[in-house]
Amino acid sequence: MTQPPKILYIEDDPASGKLIERMLTHAGYRVLLANRGLLGIDIARSEFPDLILTDINLPDMSGYEVATALRAEERFAGVPIVALTALGPGAQDMAMAAGITGFLSKPVDIEQLITQIQYYLQGGQDTIDSERLFSAQVKYTREVVSRLEGRIRALEEANDALKKLDNMKETFIQVTAHELRTPLTLIYGYSRLLEDHPTVNKMAEYDQSVKMLVESLSDSIARMQRVIEEILIISRIMTKQIDLALSPTNLSQLVARVLESYEEAFEQRKLTVHFDPAQWPRQTQLDSELIRIVMSNLISNAIKYTPDGGQIYLRAQTTSDQVMFSVRDTGIGIDVENQKRIFEQFGSLGDVKLHSTSKTAFGGGGLGLGLPVCKGIVEAHGGKIWVESQGRDPETCPGSQFIVTLPLVVQRPRPMLTRLSK
Ligand code: ADP
Q1: Are 392 and 333 in contact, with CB atoms under 8 Å apart?
Q2: For 173-275, where are the E strands, in sequence order?
Q3: Residue 67's domain is classified under what CATH number?
Q4: Taking CB atoms and a 6 Å cutoff, what residues make up the pocket around ligand 1?
Q5: 145 in a domain, yes or no?
Q6: pLDDT confidence of 418, banded at 50, 70, 90?
Q7: What is the pTM of this model?
Q8: What pLDDT score does 26 carry?
Q9: What sign for the dihedral angle of Cα 283, 286, 291, 295?
Q10: Do residues 218 and 251 both lie within one domain?
Protein backbone atom coordinates (compact mmCIF):
# COMPACT_ATOMS: atom_id res chain seq x y z
CA MET A 1 0.00 0.00 0.00
CA THR A 2 1.41 3.38 -0.95
CA GLN A 3 1.72 6.00 1.74
CA PRO A 4 -0.59 9.05 1.42
CA PRO A 5 1.31 12.20 0.36
CA LYS A 6 2.86 14.13 3.24
CA ILE A 7 2.11 17.84 3.45
CA LEU A 8 3.94 20.27 5.73
CA TYR A 9 1.86 23.30 6.64
CA ILE A 10 3.73 26.29 8.10
CA GLU A 11 1.26 28.62 9.83
CA ASP A 12 1.48 30.62 13.04
CA ASP A 13 -2.27 31.03 13.55
CA PRO A 14 -3.36 27.88 15.42
CA ALA A 15 -6.99 28.14 14.24
CA SER A 16 -6.01 28.29 10.54
CA GLY A 17 -3.48 25.52 11.14
CA LYS A 18 -6.08 23.21 12.63
CA LEU A 19 -8.69 24.03 9.98
CA ILE A 20 -6.43 23.27 7.01
CA GLU A 21 -5.00 20.23 8.80
CA ARG A 22 -8.53 18.85 9.21
CA MET A 23 -9.44 19.54 5.56
CA LEU A 24 -6.30 17.93 4.22
CA THR A 25 -6.44 14.95 6.57
CA HIS A 26 -10.04 14.42 5.52
CA ALA A 27 -8.91 14.44 1.89
CA GLY A 28 -6.44 11.64 2.67
CA TYR A 29 -3.18 13.55 3.20
CA ARG A 30 -0.77 13.23 6.09
CA VAL A 31 -0.24 16.66 7.60
CA LEU A 32 2.68 18.05 9.60
CA LEU A 33 2.30 21.45 11.27
CA ALA A 34 4.92 24.07 12.10
CA ASN A 35 4.15 27.43 13.70
CA ARG A 36 7.40 29.17 12.76
CA GLY A 37 9.52 29.43 9.63
CA LEU A 38 12.67 27.94 11.14
CA LEU A 39 10.76 25.05 12.66
CA GLY A 40 9.17 24.49 9.23
CA ILE A 41 12.63 24.31 7.62
CA ASP A 42 13.80 21.83 10.28
CA ILE A 43 10.73 19.62 9.81
CA ALA A 44 11.10 19.81 6.02
CA ARG A 45 14.70 18.63 6.35
CA SER A 46 13.90 15.76 8.66
CA GLU A 47 10.55 14.63 7.21
CA PHE A 48 11.04 15.51 3.56
CA PRO A 49 7.36 16.22 2.74
CA ASP A 50 5.82 15.84 -0.73
CA LEU A 51 4.48 19.38 -0.64
CA ILE A 52 5.03 22.41 1.57
CA LEU A 53 2.22 24.85 2.20
CA THR A 54 3.28 28.06 3.87
CA ASP A 55 1.78 31.24 5.21
CA ILE A 56 3.71 34.39 4.20
CA ASN A 57 3.69 36.38 7.45
CA LEU A 58 5.41 34.19 10.00
CA PRO A 59 6.82 35.39 13.32
CA ASP A 60 10.51 34.70 12.64
CA MET A 61 10.92 34.83 8.86
CA SER A 62 8.64 35.22 5.87
CA GLY A 63 7.21 32.32 3.88
CA TYR A 64 9.23 33.68 0.93
CA GLU A 65 12.44 33.26 2.92
CA VAL A 66 11.45 29.73 3.90
CA ALA A 67 11.06 28.92 0.22
CA THR A 68 14.39 30.54 -0.71
CA ALA A 69 16.19 28.68 2.08
CA LEU A 70 14.79 25.32 1.00
CA ARG A 71 15.30 25.95 -2.70
CA ALA A 72 18.99 26.47 -1.97
CA GLU A 73 19.16 22.75 -1.19
CA GLU A 74 19.38 20.40 -4.15
CA ARG A 75 16.91 17.86 -2.74
CA PHE A 76 14.14 20.47 -2.43
CA ALA A 77 14.53 21.65 -6.04
CA GLY A 78 11.50 19.65 -7.19
CA VAL A 79 9.31 19.84 -4.07
CA PRO A 80 6.27 22.07 -4.60
CA ILE A 81 6.22 24.99 -2.14
CA VAL A 82 2.85 26.69 -2.14
CA ALA A 83 2.05 30.03 -0.49
CA LEU A 84 -1.29 30.32 1.22
CA THR A 85 -2.07 33.91 2.08
CA ALA A 86 -4.57 36.71 2.21
CA LEU A 87 -2.07 39.10 0.63
CA GLY A 88 -2.87 40.65 -2.74
CA PRO A 89 -1.50 40.04 -6.29
CA GLY A 90 1.79 41.98 -5.69
CA ALA A 91 2.64 39.29 -3.16
CA GLN A 92 2.24 36.66 -5.86
CA ASP A 93 5.07 38.12 -7.93
CA MET A 94 7.32 38.20 -4.85
CA ALA A 95 6.38 34.61 -4.06
CA MET A 96 7.40 33.48 -7.54
CA ALA A 97 10.65 35.44 -7.23
CA ALA A 98 11.41 33.65 -3.97
CA GLY A 99 11.03 30.24 -5.60
CA ILE A 100 7.45 29.46 -4.67
CA THR A 101 5.62 27.07 -7.02
CA GLY A 102 2.11 28.35 -6.63
CA PHE A 103 -0.04 30.76 -4.79
CA LEU A 104 -3.36 30.08 -3.04
CA SER A 105 -5.54 32.86 -1.65
CA LYS A 106 -7.20 32.97 1.72
CA PRO A 107 -9.99 32.47 2.66
CA VAL A 108 -9.78 28.93 1.37
CA ASP A 109 -12.37 27.18 -0.64
CA ILE A 110 -12.12 23.50 0.36
CA GLU A 111 -12.73 21.99 -3.03
CA GLN A 112 -10.47 24.43 -4.77
CA LEU A 113 -7.75 23.83 -2.18
CA ILE A 114 -7.78 20.07 -2.74
CA THR A 115 -7.84 20.44 -6.53
CA GLN A 116 -4.96 22.93 -6.44
CA ILE A 117 -2.90 20.76 -4.12
CA GLN A 118 -3.35 17.79 -6.46
CA TYR A 119 -2.36 20.01 -9.38
CA TYR A 120 0.88 21.08 -7.66
CA LEU A 121 1.62 17.55 -6.48
CA GLN A 122 1.40 16.39 -10.09
CA GLY A 123 3.99 18.92 -11.19
CA GLY A 124 1.72 21.88 -11.94
CA GLN A 125 3.20 25.32 -11.50
CA ASP A 126 1.99 28.96 -11.61
CA THR A 127 3.70 31.20 -14.11
CA ILE A 128 4.15 34.92 -14.63
CA ASP A 129 5.80 36.65 -17.56
CA SER A 130 9.56 37.03 -17.41
CA GLU A 131 9.55 40.83 -17.14
CA ARG A 132 7.32 40.75 -14.06
CA LEU A 133 9.41 37.95 -12.62
CA PHE A 134 12.65 39.87 -13.17
CA SER A 135 11.42 43.07 -11.49
CA ALA A 136 9.96 40.98 -8.59
CA GLN A 137 13.34 39.25 -8.20
CA VAL A 138 15.13 42.62 -7.97
CA LYS A 139 12.62 43.86 -5.38
CA TYR A 140 12.77 40.63 -3.40
CA THR A 141 16.61 40.59 -3.32
CA ARG A 142 16.63 44.18 -2.06
CA GLU A 143 14.11 43.35 0.65
CA VAL A 144 16.03 40.26 1.79
CA VAL A 145 19.31 42.16 1.93
CA SER A 146 17.81 45.04 3.90
CA ARG A 147 16.09 42.64 6.31
CA LEU A 148 19.36 40.77 6.75
CA GLU A 149 21.17 44.01 7.50
CA GLY A 150 18.52 44.89 10.10
CA ARG A 151 18.89 41.44 11.67
CA ILE A 152 22.70 41.71 11.84
CA ARG A 153 22.43 45.14 13.49
CA ALA A 154 19.90 43.84 16.02
CA LEU A 155 22.12 40.83 16.76
CA GLU A 156 25.18 43.03 17.22
CA GLU A 157 23.27 45.25 19.64
CA ALA A 158 22.01 42.23 21.57
CA ASN A 159 25.54 40.83 21.62
CA ASP A 160 26.96 44.10 22.98
CA ALA A 161 24.27 44.19 25.68
CA LEU A 162 25.05 40.59 26.64
CA LYS A 163 28.78 41.31 26.81
CA LYS A 164 28.12 44.29 29.09
CA LEU A 165 25.90 42.15 31.29
CA ASP A 166 28.54 39.41 31.36
CA ASN A 167 31.22 41.92 32.38
CA MET A 168 28.95 43.27 35.10
CA LYS A 169 28.38 39.73 36.34
CA GLU A 170 32.11 38.95 36.42
CA THR A 171 32.86 42.24 38.20
CA PHE A 172 30.09 41.53 40.70
CA ILE A 173 31.49 38.06 41.37
CA GLN A 174 35.03 39.36 41.78
CA VAL A 175 34.04 42.26 44.05
CA THR A 176 31.80 40.04 46.18
CA ALA A 177 34.42 37.31 46.49
CA HIS A 178 37.10 39.90 47.41
CA GLU A 179 34.80 41.46 50.00
CA LEU A 180 34.05 38.05 51.53
CA ARG A 181 37.69 37.00 51.53
CA THR A 182 38.96 39.75 53.84
CA PRO A 183 36.65 39.19 56.84
CA LEU A 184 36.90 35.44 56.33
CA THR A 185 40.68 35.57 56.67
CA LEU A 186 40.22 37.35 59.99
CA ILE A 187 37.59 34.86 61.16
CA TYR A 188 39.90 32.01 60.20
CA GLY A 189 42.75 33.61 62.15
CA TYR A 190 40.54 34.04 65.24
CA SER A 191 39.33 30.45 64.99
CA ARG A 192 42.93 29.19 64.88
CA LEU A 193 43.81 31.37 67.88
CA LEU A 194 40.81 29.95 69.70
CA GLU A 195 41.85 26.41 68.75
CA ASP A 196 45.28 26.92 70.35
CA HIS A 197 44.02 29.05 73.24
CA PRO A 198 45.05 27.73 76.70
CA THR A 199 41.51 28.23 78.08
CA VAL A 200 40.04 26.14 75.26
CA ASN A 201 42.72 23.49 75.82
CA LYS A 202 41.85 23.47 79.53
CA MET A 203 38.14 23.17 78.78
CA ALA A 204 38.92 20.36 76.33
CA GLU A 205 40.51 18.41 79.17
CA TYR A 206 37.06 18.23 80.78
CA ASP A 207 35.01 18.02 77.63
CA GLN A 208 36.53 16.66 74.37
CA SER A 209 33.62 18.04 72.32
CA VAL A 210 34.88 21.59 72.91
CA LYS A 211 38.05 20.85 70.96
CA MET A 212 36.03 19.16 68.23
CA LEU A 213 33.67 22.12 67.92
CA VAL A 214 36.50 24.60 67.53
CA GLU A 215 38.30 22.38 65.03
CA SER A 216 35.13 21.96 62.97
CA LEU A 217 34.75 25.73 62.98
CA SER A 218 38.26 26.19 61.53
CA ASP A 219 37.69 23.42 58.98
CA SER A 220 34.44 24.96 57.75
CA ILE A 221 36.01 28.38 57.44
CA ALA A 222 38.96 26.91 55.54
CA ARG A 223 36.49 25.21 53.18
CA MET A 224 34.69 28.51 52.59
CA GLN A 225 38.02 30.15 51.86
CA ARG A 226 38.82 27.48 49.26
CA VAL A 227 35.45 27.95 47.55
CA ILE A 228 35.99 31.72 47.41
CA GLU A 229 39.52 31.20 46.05
CA GLU A 230 38.15 28.86 43.36
CA ILE A 231 35.43 31.35 42.40
CA LEU A 232 38.00 34.15 42.14
CA ILE A 233 40.36 32.07 40.02
CA ILE A 234 37.56 30.88 37.73
CA SER A 235 36.35 34.43 37.30
CA ARG A 236 39.85 35.61 36.43
CA ILE A 237 40.25 32.73 33.99
CA MET A 238 36.90 33.56 32.36
CA THR A 239 37.85 37.20 31.87
CA LYS A 240 41.37 36.18 30.80
CA GLN A 241 42.74 38.25 33.64
CA ILE A 242 44.85 35.54 35.17
CA ASP A 243 48.32 36.89 35.72
CA LEU A 244 51.14 34.54 36.53
CA ALA A 245 53.49 35.42 39.34
CA LEU A 246 56.40 33.37 37.96
CA SER A 247 59.19 32.45 40.30
CA PRO A 248 61.83 29.69 40.62
CA THR A 249 59.80 26.71 41.80
CA ASN A 250 61.03 23.43 43.22
CA LEU A 251 58.19 21.21 42.00
CA SER A 252 59.47 18.22 43.93
CA GLN A 253 59.29 20.14 47.20
CA LEU A 254 55.95 21.70 46.30
CA VAL A 255 54.33 18.29 45.73
CA ALA A 256 55.88 16.91 48.93
CA ARG A 257 54.36 19.82 50.89
CA VAL A 258 50.92 19.32 49.37
CA LEU A 259 51.12 15.62 50.27
CA GLU A 260 52.11 16.54 53.83
CA SER A 261 48.95 18.66 54.16
CA TYR A 262 46.87 15.56 53.40
CA GLU A 263 48.78 13.18 55.67
CA GLU A 264 45.95 12.92 58.17
CA ALA A 265 43.48 12.05 55.41
CA PHE A 266 45.80 9.35 53.99
CA GLU A 267 46.02 7.82 57.42
CA GLN A 268 42.30 8.00 58.19
CA ARG A 269 41.33 6.66 54.77
CA LYS A 270 44.15 4.06 54.74
CA LEU A 271 45.39 5.27 51.36
CA THR A 272 48.93 4.46 50.23
CA VAL A 273 50.74 7.19 48.32
CA HIS A 274 53.54 6.37 45.90
CA PHE A 275 55.76 9.38 45.40
CA ASP A 276 59.43 9.54 44.45
CA PRO A 277 60.69 13.13 44.93
CA ALA A 278 63.68 12.38 42.69
CA GLN A 279 61.40 12.07 39.63
CA TRP A 280 60.18 15.65 39.98
CA PRO A 281 62.07 18.68 38.65
CA ARG A 282 63.59 21.06 41.18
CA GLN A 283 64.21 23.97 38.87
CA THR A 284 61.15 25.32 37.13
CA GLN A 285 59.80 28.78 36.51
CA LEU A 286 56.10 28.64 37.36
CA ASP A 287 53.46 30.37 39.46
CA SER A 288 54.05 28.22 42.51
CA GLU A 289 50.88 29.32 44.34
CA LEU A 290 48.65 28.42 41.38
CA ILE A 291 50.47 25.13 40.69
CA ARG A 292 50.04 24.26 44.38
CA ILE A 293 46.26 24.69 43.86
CA VAL A 294 46.39 22.33 40.84
CA MET A 295 48.30 19.67 42.79
CA SER A 296 46.04 20.07 45.79
CA ASN A 297 42.87 19.68 43.69
CA LEU A 298 44.16 16.61 41.85
CA ILE A 299 45.35 14.93 45.03
CA SER A 300 42.20 15.74 46.99
CA ASN A 301 40.08 14.38 44.12
CA ALA A 302 42.15 11.18 44.12
CA ILE A 303 41.45 10.91 47.86
CA LYS A 304 37.73 11.69 47.50
CA TYR A 305 37.05 9.23 44.71
CA THR A 306 39.14 6.31 45.96
CA PRO A 307 37.64 3.93 48.53
CA ASP A 308 39.51 3.31 51.79
CA GLY A 309 42.61 1.16 51.38
CA GLY A 310 43.35 2.35 47.82
CA GLN A 311 46.54 3.55 46.15
CA ILE A 312 47.55 6.93 44.78
CA TYR A 313 50.51 7.15 42.39
CA LEU A 314 52.29 10.40 41.58
CA ARG A 315 54.72 10.17 38.69
CA ALA A 316 56.75 12.71 36.74
CA GLN A 317 58.95 12.68 33.66
CA THR A 318 61.06 15.61 32.62
CA THR A 319 62.38 16.41 29.14
CA SER A 320 64.62 19.32 28.19
CA ASP A 321 61.77 21.81 28.19
CA GLN A 322 58.75 20.28 29.87
CA VAL A 323 57.52 18.12 32.69
CA MET A 324 54.72 15.60 32.27
CA PHE A 325 53.22 14.36 35.49
CA SER A 326 50.28 12.24 36.50
CA VAL A 327 48.10 11.60 39.52
CA ARG A 328 46.65 8.09 39.27
CA ASP A 329 44.29 6.47 41.73
CA THR A 330 42.59 3.13 42.19
CA GLY A 331 39.21 4.83 42.65
CA ILE A 332 35.77 4.65 41.07
CA GLY A 333 36.92 5.97 37.66
CA ILE A 334 35.19 8.31 35.23
CA ASP A 335 32.91 7.45 32.29
CA VAL A 336 34.51 8.18 28.92
CA GLU A 337 31.61 10.46 27.86
CA ASN A 338 32.14 12.62 30.95
CA GLN A 339 35.89 12.97 30.65
CA LYS A 340 35.66 16.33 28.85
CA ARG A 341 32.67 17.63 30.81
CA ILE A 342 34.40 17.48 34.17
CA PHE A 343 36.79 20.20 33.03
CA GLU A 344 33.86 22.52 32.39
CA GLN A 345 32.54 24.79 35.13
CA PHE A 346 30.09 23.12 37.50
CA GLY A 347 30.77 19.80 35.72
CA SER A 348 30.34 17.87 38.97
CA LEU A 349 29.02 14.43 38.09
CA GLY A 350 27.43 13.35 41.32
CA ASP A 351 24.32 14.75 42.92
CA VAL A 352 25.63 18.06 44.29
CA LYS A 353 22.99 17.97 47.02
CA LEU A 354 24.71 14.90 48.43
CA HIS A 355 28.14 16.46 48.38
CA SER A 356 29.68 16.96 51.75
CA THR A 357 32.12 19.47 50.18
CA SER A 358 34.75 17.67 52.20
CA LYS A 359 38.13 17.55 50.50
CA THR A 360 38.85 14.08 51.84
CA ALA A 361 35.66 12.12 52.62
CA PHE A 362 34.96 9.30 50.16
CA GLY A 363 32.49 10.61 47.58
CA GLY A 364 32.51 14.07 49.12
CA GLY A 365 32.35 16.61 46.37
CA GLY A 366 32.12 20.31 45.78
CA LEU A 367 30.89 22.81 43.26
CA GLY A 368 32.60 21.12 40.34
CA LEU A 369 35.02 24.03 40.04
CA GLY A 370 38.24 22.21 41.01
CA LEU A 371 39.08 20.75 37.59
CA PRO A 372 38.08 23.85 35.56
CA VAL A 373 40.37 25.79 37.89
CA CYS A 374 43.18 23.27 37.20
CA LYS A 375 42.58 23.52 33.44
CA GLY A 376 42.60 27.33 33.51
CA ILE A 377 45.81 27.45 35.52
CA VAL A 378 47.62 24.79 33.47
CA GLU A 379 46.60 26.40 30.16
CA ALA A 380 47.63 29.85 31.42
CA HIS A 381 51.08 28.29 31.88
CA GLY A 382 50.97 27.00 28.30
CA GLY A 383 50.39 23.40 29.39
CA LYS A 384 47.71 20.74 28.95
CA ILE A 385 45.59 18.61 31.26
CA TRP A 386 43.44 15.58 30.51
CA VAL A 387 42.13 12.45 32.15
CA GLU A 388 42.36 8.78 31.24
CA SER A 389 40.00 6.24 32.74
CA GLN A 390 38.34 3.08 31.47
CA GLY A 391 35.01 4.13 32.93
CA ARG A 392 33.21 4.58 36.21
CA ASP A 393 32.49 1.57 38.37
CA PRO A 394 32.40 1.92 42.17
CA GLU A 395 32.46 -1.91 42.45
CA THR A 396 35.51 -2.80 40.37
CA CYS A 397 37.26 0.59 40.74
CA PRO A 398 39.06 0.94 37.40
CA GLY A 399 40.77 4.13 38.66
CA SER A 400 41.54 7.44 36.97
CA GLN A 401 44.73 9.06 35.81
CA PHE A 402 45.01 12.85 35.46
CA ILE A 403 47.90 13.88 33.25
CA VAL A 404 49.44 17.34 33.11
CA THR A 405 52.14 18.80 30.92
CA LEU A 406 53.84 22.06 31.88
CA PRO A 407 56.77 23.91 30.36
CA LEU A 408 59.73 24.01 32.73
CA VAL A 409 60.09 27.70 32.05
CA VAL A 410 56.95 29.59 31.09
CA GLN A 411 57.40 31.85 28.09
CA ARG A 412 56.39 35.42 28.76
CA PRO A 413 54.35 37.26 27.79
CA ARG A 414 51.59 34.78 26.92
CA PRO A 415 49.45 36.57 24.31
CA MET A 416 46.09 35.72 25.93
CA LEU A 417 47.05 37.12 29.30
CA THR A 418 46.48 40.63 30.50
CA ARG A 419 47.66 42.09 33.75
CA LEU A 420 45.26 42.18 36.68
CA SER A 421 45.68 44.62 39.48
CA LYS A 422 45.36 42.47 42.54
P1 ADP B 1 34.23 18.40 42.71
O2 ADP B 1 34.32 19.57 43.61
O3 ADP B 1 32.83 17.96 42.43
O4 ADP B 1 35.15 17.30 43.09
P5 ADP B 1 35.95 18.75 40.41
O6 ADP B 1 35.93 19.80 39.34
O7 ADP B 1 37.20 18.62 41.20
O8 ADP B 1 34.71 19.04 41.34
O9 ADP B 1 35.60 17.36 39.75
C10 ADP B 1 34.48 17.26 38.90
C11 ADP B 1 33.94 15.85 38.87
O12 ADP B 1 34.90 14.99 38.26
C13 ADP B 1 33.68 15.27 40.25
O14 ADP B 1 32.39 15.59 40.71
C15 ADP B 1 33.85 13.77 40.01
O16 ADP B 1 32.64 13.23 39.56
C17 ADP B 1 34.86 13.69 38.87
N18 ADP B 1 36.22 13.38 39.35
C19 ADP B 1 37.24 14.24 39.57
N20 ADP B 1 38.36 13.59 39.96
C21 ADP B 1 38.06 12.28 40.00
C22 ADP B 1 38.78 11.08 40.33
N23 ADP B 1 40.07 11.11 40.70
N24 ADP B 1 38.12 9.91 40.25
C25 ADP B 1 36.83 9.86 39.88
N26 ADP B 1 36.08 10.94 39.57
C27 ADP B 1 36.68 12.14 39.61
Answers
A1: yes
A2: 247-249, 272-275
A3: 3.40.50.2300
A4: 297, 301-302, 305, 329, 331-334, 342, 347-350, 365-371, 400
A5: no
A6: very low
A7: 0.64
A8: 93
A9: negative
A10: no
| CA 272 to centroid of ligand 1, rounded, Å | 20
Predicted confidence (pLDDT) per residue in 51-79, tens digit: 999 999 999 999 999 999 999 999 999 99
The CA-based diameter of the chain, rounded to the nearest angstrom, is 105
Distance CA 21, CA 17 (A): 6
What is the Cα–Cα distance from 104 to 165, expressed in whole angstroms?
A: 47
DSSP state of 226: H
Q: Is the pLDDT of residue 196 over 70?
A: yes
- d(CA 79, CA 387) in angstroms, rounded, equals 49
Residue 349: band (very low, low, confident or very high) from pLDDT cuts 50, 70, 90: low
pLDDT score of 356 more than 50 = no
Report how far ligand 1's centroid is from the alpha carbon of 301 (Å).
6
User: 353: helix, coil or strand?
Assistant: helix
Q: Which protein residue has the closest C-alpha to ligand 1 atom 8?
A: 368
Q: Is the pLDDT of residue 190 over 80?
A: yes
Please report the pLDDT score of residue 354 as a whole number. 41
Domain annotation covers residue 136: no
**CATH code of residue 323:** 3.30.565.10
Say whether both 116 and 167 belong to one domain. no
Instruction: Report which DSSP code applies to 56.
Output: S
Domain match, 272 and 385 both:
yes
Q: Structural domain of residue 10, as residue ranges?
A: 6-128
- CB–CB of 389/339 below 8 Å? yes
Are 372 and 249 contained in the same domain?
Answer: yes
* Same domain flag for 188 and 201: yes
Which residue's CA is the closest to the ligand 1 atom numbered 4? 365
297 CA: nearest ligand 1 atom? 7
Using 50, 70 and 90 to split pLDDT, how confident is the model at 364? low
What is the rounded average pLDDT of the residues 262-277?
Answer: 96
Query: Per-residue pLDDT averaged across 360-365, rounded?
Result: 65
For 84, 91, 111, 120, 358, the CA distances from 101, given in Å and listed in that order, are 11, 13, 19, 8, 67
Q: Verify that 192 and 222 share a domain, yes or no.
A: yes
Give CA 233 to chain center in angstroms.
Answer: 18
